[in-house]
């Protein structure tokens, strides 16, 4: 209970800071007055900072939860959606759609991003079918991510006229995100609820494949469901923000350190810490050199890369 209250307080503080800080700082009292007025003409808080903060919270949570699902089903602490081809696959198809089909409806981009994430997961599963090993799975995912990233770079270089539009979708940014994106963002919530019934199976998989199978776990079914949910969560996040790295890796680790226990606790904790990391990265990106903003994808890389190196150092 104490840890849950701490998480709630942390998210509340970060949400309030997101509403108060920026190129034009506001006091908490001024923010509360503007929110209470519910003035649709209020651009700064009601139409800019509030939806941006909520998007950061929900999509950061989606990526954190996706990372926990991937790490749980693969039993590898270095696994995450962005290291297994899911994030880069979604980014590649998103860039391809924008560059090759410029007249394509914007409403189709989320489906294209989800399809790209699914492509990465399917290729990875096919490659590892019949010879599954957590280490082999992770390493082949890294190679697949590098391949998708290479294709994305090729598309950008060969379409210089439309490169600015594509780069805006691939930087991992909350800039200009608002209430228009909220219907897609809210799709995360029912998808996330579907992850909770997998918690018991993930706990048993942690004991080893043979033990889990002996205890009645259908490994193939659980792996398929967990990875499918991770693809959906990551695809929605990439469709709205563009690729954002390291949250899916870092958030589950922090959750396991702060709330050790069963997957039923770690899954929502990973989502909460993912949302906290996204909001904190957005705050730092806005505070470094206002009114200029550092994209949230850049900030999560700056935060996550040292953590990743520290994690590798601990595992030597």
Chart the SSEs and their pairings.
Blueprint: H1 2-20, H2 28-37, H3 45-74, H4 86-100, H5 109-128, H6 134-158, H7 163-170, H8 182-185, H9 188-193, H10 199-205, H11 209-214, H12 219-241, H13 247-258, H14 263-287, H15 296-314
Protein name: Iron complex transport system permease protein
Transmembrane segments: 53-74, 108-127, 183-207, 227-251, 263-288, 294-313
Subcellular location: Cell membrane
* Residue share in β-strands: under 5%
Secondary structure class reads mainly alpha
- Count of individual beta strands: 0
SSE string, helix = H, strand = E?
HHHHHHHHHHHHHHH
Annotated CATH topology of the domain at 2-77 and 171-314: ABC transporter involved in vitamin B12 uptake, BtuC
- CATH class categorisation of the domain at 2-77 and 171-314: Mainly Alpha
Number of helices: 15
Sheet with the most strands? none
Helical content stands at over 70%
Overall geometry comes to globular
Task: Return the average pLDDT rounded to an integer.
Answer: 85
| Cα radius of gyration in angstroms | 19 Å
Q: CATH H level of the domain at 2-77 and 171-314: which superfamily?
A: ABC transporter involved in vitamin B12 uptake, BtuC
The residue ranges in which pLDDT falls below 50 over 5 or more consecutive positions are none
**How far is it from the N-terminal to the C-terminal residue, by CA?**
35 Å
What is the correct CATH architecture of the domain at 2-77 and 171-314? Answer: Orthogonal Bundle
